Amino acid sequence: MKHPATALLALMAFFIIALPNAQAGRIVKVKGNKALVKLSKSDNFKKGQTIPVYTKKGKLVGKVKIVSVKKGRAVAQIVGKSKLKRGLFVRAKSKSKPNKERPTGQAIMVGGIIGMQSDTMTVEKEGDPTRDLAGSGFSVKAFADFPLTSTWNLRAGVGLQQLSTKDAGDSTCLDSDSNPAVCEVNINYFSADGLIRYMFSEGSFRPYAGAHLGLLVPTGSDVTAIDEDSVASTSFYGVSFGFDWHFGNGNSMIPFQVDYGLYPPSEDVSASSLIIKVGYGFRW
Questions:
Q1: For the segment 82-118, what is each residue's pLDDT rounded down to a tens digit?
Q2: Helix and strand tally (H, E) in the chain?
Q3: Cα–Cα distance for residue pair 151/200, rounded to 1 Å
Q4: What is the CA radius of gyration of the chain?
Q5: Which domains are seen in the chain, by residue range?
Q6: Segment 231-267, tens digit of pLDDT
Q7: Angle (nearest 5°) at CA 104 between 158 and 69
Q8: What is the rounded CA–CA span in Å between residue 119 and residue 133?
Q9: What are the phi and psi torsion angles at 72 (to 5°)?
Q10: Spatial separation of the C-alpha atoms in residues 101 and 106, rounded to whole Å
Q11: Is the pTM of this model over 0.85?
């Protein structure tokens, strides 16, 4: 069974590029050393305030000084010799100061995260018809985020992860007592994993993309579509993207994460999972 890869990539691009600028003002016109800024609903710029200007990817390209504000628009004077143009984003830095030890994004964060997943599996046993199985599982994990640099971060997690699929067709398999049964694979794993993340921006809203690798140790199983003896420790690897939204002076956060991963294929079986996760974290 095929995953909608194109839609997944489009969603990734949305979170990485569009969301950081959803709460930013945008330059709609530049004339001489003046710029007209269309404000977002969250902007509260004041006359005389100096505001940084960014590209949509978060690169700082200059500053503007607010001259006047009226009806959702602001006239600003370009500061220095910055060459600004239409489409750039004007986003004020947060006035709140996080914990003095480390700024937001540079602190160790710990918490819990739960996930709902879409699982697919293809079983091709010799002498049997090819079976496409699908289902939904879940994961529950504790995590800790360790900043490596200002842009690279390691998320380590431990917990439970489930692989759950069954054949939606009319075919039957044999259970452990050789009785006809629904073709299915249900395996519960203890999981320990790591996610290397590249953070696309600093501050309270931090979108990211990265790669993950996990070790899965089975703790229980109910399988008919594959041999019981084939259930063993395995791995889970793939790509991830999402964002961390920090609040409360950077002492708390809401993590949102999407994982797409593969299980190492065998001669008879290949499987994958798409997992959507959300949780809560706090500064350690």
A1: 788 888 888 766 444 444 445 555 689 999 999 999 9
A2: 1, 16
A3: 7
A4: 24
A5: 24-90 (2.40.10.170), 101-283 (2.40.160.20)
A6: 999 999 999 999 999 888 778 999 999 999 999 998 8
A7: 135
A8: 8
A9: 75, 10
A10: 9
A11: no
